[in-house]
Amino acid sequence: MEGDLSPRNLVYATVSRGYKPGGSNLSQTPILVPVIYQPEHVTAFEVGSKNRFADNALQLNLAAYYYAYRNLQLQLDDPVPFQGGVGNVDKAEMYGLEAEGSALLPAGFRFDGTIGLEHGRILSHQLLLDGYEGNLAQLTTQAQGFGAFTPQTIAARAAAAKSAYGNSVPKLPGVTGNLTLYKTFDTASGSKLVSNFSAVYRGPFQPRVFNEPGIDRVPSYLIFDAGIQFKPAHSHWGLDIVVSNLTDKAGVSSRFVDAFSIASDANGRGVITQEYVPPRQLIATLRYSF
Question: Mind listing the pLDDT tens digit for each residue in 30-52?
């Protein structure tokens, strides 16, 4: 549903439904993780406005959204060793605000920007087992002489399960932003040179539903990019030069915590691996337009 407040101002509202099919795990005797996991459903509500001002020199779009999840699918571990897989969290929610804008400025400058503020949390009180902690409980019982599949070990792993109610939804940074400033140079011969400088920010987030301090928090990063685009007059050729991650920031883009106790660190708990943003790169592209 949408409506025009004026020729340059529009408001809208939408409601939509999303669906992710369920499936089965390669497990036979789990306690917490189901053999058959349920389909995931989301109901998405969004309201927003799209606007142009100052004879189209300024554009501003705003949106607010709320997503209600049912049976959110996640990778989970089980008290019975090696019986983990995909499981469901009964209820979760996500909501946020988004803004994007563009402004034509004097002296050939242009500014583009986007910013997002979002939050999400688990609304279910069901017990979930963190494989990182379950592996530690298992090693403790094994040190006492119990086998990996004995009732004592399974009970110790089950005791490590806890509610994730109120925890952050995985992989949801609270703040994201991208700001870019362009400058256009026009030569007397008609050639055009466009330079740009941008800043990209991604706030911290939790890669897993367990939100364990010291394990799950992926730190924020701020990186800068720059580029030049040159198009000679009356020519099909063009040249683009981009330098990404100017300061060579070692930002962490994602983190993986072994969910199934397949490998262990020196303390006997699951191994943590990280993926970093690409290092500083210089990329030159020669273009030809037919």
Answer: 999 999 999 999 999 999 999 99
Signed CA dihedral, 210, 216, 217, 219: sign only: negative
Run of H or E residues at 151: helix 151-159
Residues 6+ apart with CB under 8 A from 202: 173, 175, 176, 220, 221, 251
Distance spanning both ends of the chain, measured CA to CA: 41
**Torsions phi, psi of 243, nearest 5?**
-115, 110
- DSSP structural state of residue 217: P
State whether residue 126 is helix, strand or coil.
Answer: coil
Q: CA separation (Å) from 209 to 34, 73, 137, 213?
A: 17, 11, 19, 12
Task: Give the Cβ contact number of residue 74 at 10 Å.
Answer: 21
For residues 125 and 90, give the distance between their C-alpha atoms in angstroms, rounded to a whole number.
Answer: 9
Nearest to 158 by CA among 131, 183, 185: 131
pLDDT at residue 289 tops 70: yes
Average the pLDDT over each of 55-69, 194-208, 261-275 and give the range with the smallest value.
261-275
Record the pTM: 0.86
